[in-house]
Every structure is written in structure tokens, then in C-alpha cells.
Amino acid sequence: MLILNKTAGVFSKPSRRKPYEFLRSFNFYPGKLFLHKLVLGIETSCDDTAAAVVDETGNVLGEAIHSQTEVHLKTGGIVPPVAQQLHRENIQRIVQEALSASKVSPSELSAIATTVKPGLALSLGVGLSFSLQLVHQLKKPFIPIHHMEAHALTIRLLNKVEFPFLVLLISGGHCLLALVRGVSDFLLLGKSLDIAPGDMLDKHVIDKIIMQKEKEEGIQKGQILSSAAHIAAAVQHTIACHIAKRTHRAILFCKQRHLLSQSNAVLVVSGGVASNLYIRKALEIVTNATQCTLLCPPPRLCTDNGIMIAWNGIERLRAGVGVLHNTEGIRYEPKCPLGVDISEEVGEAAIKVPRLKMEI
């Protein structure tokens, strides 16, 4: 079992605190020999502190996660400084739990992979700072991970999906369509112009509709609108149909440009909102009409987790892409596009999307 040093102020700015040793001691597991590459993945891009150890065959050897949901529900949304503090308080324990569960000693790791972009700046900073000190202590390669790339590649942990494939990433903070041509080779076909689906399901325009209806019905605090279920259903249906139409266009564009196979193309849907079965059913209508296969990771791997980060690290390690042996100058990036943006080209193609009957 790995025992990590507990020192107050560990995550304070390096200029104010002296570096400390993360690893005081750890135990080996006699008779246990790992023949595959092993990567520790660390995720702190938003409000979940997660870590996992995955090998190159896709076996998840150990994982741990701490959710901040209950805390942020009280404030009606994520407060970055609060998220940062909770990451600081839990990251050491979560990494230790993942390593202990995996029965892998730190010295046996092939590399450490950590989300460095995009995400909340304060949250990303905690994960990066912890990881870099761990990397320096263990003298292991570091693999910086793009959060959306990790979501896109998660499916290859579970299914034998060859490149290229189309991916739709939908979450509370992101919504994009991209063609995945390789481990770090993406063509961005389109993204949300203002807010992501998860954000739309939570607030903004919907709030105004609800407030107006409450006024009309004279709703008092604690009462529920008579039309609440209808509003929720209408919003969900509108979002599902919009996403389906845009995805349909992306499939047609890729097939016209011979970027995807005409008969056995794959559409991967990932991200937190991909757990929404109504949206999945809308996308099934599209894939059935276009002779595509729809694949989605299980719900627990659609939301943020350490497994997808570790797996992305394995993918990059095997491909020899983005594996750093010198971390000087590495920084986190709160905003960072995914791949090469060809969305203008998609728009200029002016593809007419056939009308589909969306009976969901």
C-alpha cells in the first residue's frame, strides 16, 4: 500500500512553500508481475476528483473518485474556489486509493497522465501541480491530456473501434462533433455557439418560460407548475431533435468527402449528457437511416472519471505521441479547441438534411 506524506499547505503556490516528498514509503506485492504498460490517470478538470490505474489491454486495475455534487447543489452551481479547495483536500487520498486498489507500486507505473485542458482553471491547477510533483518524485514520463480527447477515445477501451470514426461529445460544458482520425488527430466539424446541452437543460431560456408560467398560475414558493412535466419534455425533445439533425448533417458530410465508410461507419456518443436515453434514441433514428453503428460508453464512463484519462495516456503511450520526459514549461489551459476546425467547410457544403420522423 502506498503511503503518501500528509503536509499542511501542500498545494499552495510553489513560490511560498517548499516542495515536499509525496512518497514516504510503499509496499511491493511479491509474486505479482505486470507485463503490460501501466498508466495512472488523474482528473480534476471540473468538480470531480478522480484517479485510476489502467493497463494497455484495457484492464482497470484500480480507481477512486470523489464527487463534489452535494456541495455545489447548495449553491446552485459550481463555485471555482470551492471546487479548488475540495480538490486540494481530496486528491492525495483519491490517488492513494486508486493505487492501493490496483496493487501496483508507483515504481511499476509506465507514466502518469493528467487532464491539463480544457476546464476550470483553479481545478486544473490542483491536478497539474500534484501530478508534476509526483512525476518528479518517481521520475516517470508525464502525459498531458485533453479532456475532450479522453472522452472521445474512451469507447476504444471497451470496443474494438478502428479509426476513423465520428464522435459527438455532449456534456454540461461542451457540445461538439468531430472526426477522429487517430489518437491525437481530430477534425472539428462543429460545436455549440453559446451553451452546451447540459447547460441548456439546467437554465437560461427555460428559466424565463418557467417564471412566466409561475406568474400566470400564481404559483407560490413550494408549489409546482401544472405544466412542469410538459415544459421538461418539450425542452428535452427540442434539444434531442437539434442534436440529431446536426449529427445527421455531419455524417452526410463525412460520407460525401469519403472521410467515413459508406456502409459501416461508427458514431460514438460520449460525455455526461450521452447518458440521456431520450437523446440516444433520437440518435439511433439517425444512425439507422444512415447505415451507421451507434456506440456509447456506459453511463459511469460518460461522466468525468480517472479511467478515461488513464486510457488516453495508454493510447498516447502506445502511439508515442505527447509523452513528456521534461515537464518544464507545461501549463494548464482552461480553454482549448479540439483538433483542426473545419466547421466553416461543413457550413459551406450546404448539405440538405433529409427530414426524419422523430418518434421517440
From TrEMBL:
Protein family per UniProt: Belongs to the KAE1 / TsaD family.
Catalytic activity line of the entry: L-threonylcarbamoyladenylate + adenosine(37) in tRNA = N(6)-L-threonylcarbamoyladenosine(37) in tRNA + AMP + H(+)
Cross-referenced Gene3D superfamilies: 3.30.420.40
Cofactor binding description: Binds 1 divalent metal cation per subunit.
HAMAP family the record matches: TsaD
Location (main, coarse): mitochondrion
Cofactor(s) named in the record: a divalent metal cation
Name of this chain's protein: N(6)-L-threonylcarbamoyladenine synthase
Keyword annotations from UniProtKB, A to Z: Acyltransferase, Metal-binding, Mitochondrion, Transferase, Transit peptide, tRNA processing
Organism of provenance: Zalophus californianus (California sealion)
PANTHER family to which the protein is assigned, alphabetical: TRNA N6-ADENOSINE THREONYLCARBAMOYLTRANSFERASE, TRNA N6-ADENOSINE THREONYLCARBAMOYLTRANSFERASE, MITOCHONDRIAL
Pfam families reported in the protein's UniProt record: TsaD
Boundaries of every Gcp-like domain copy: 59-311
Gene: OSGEPL1
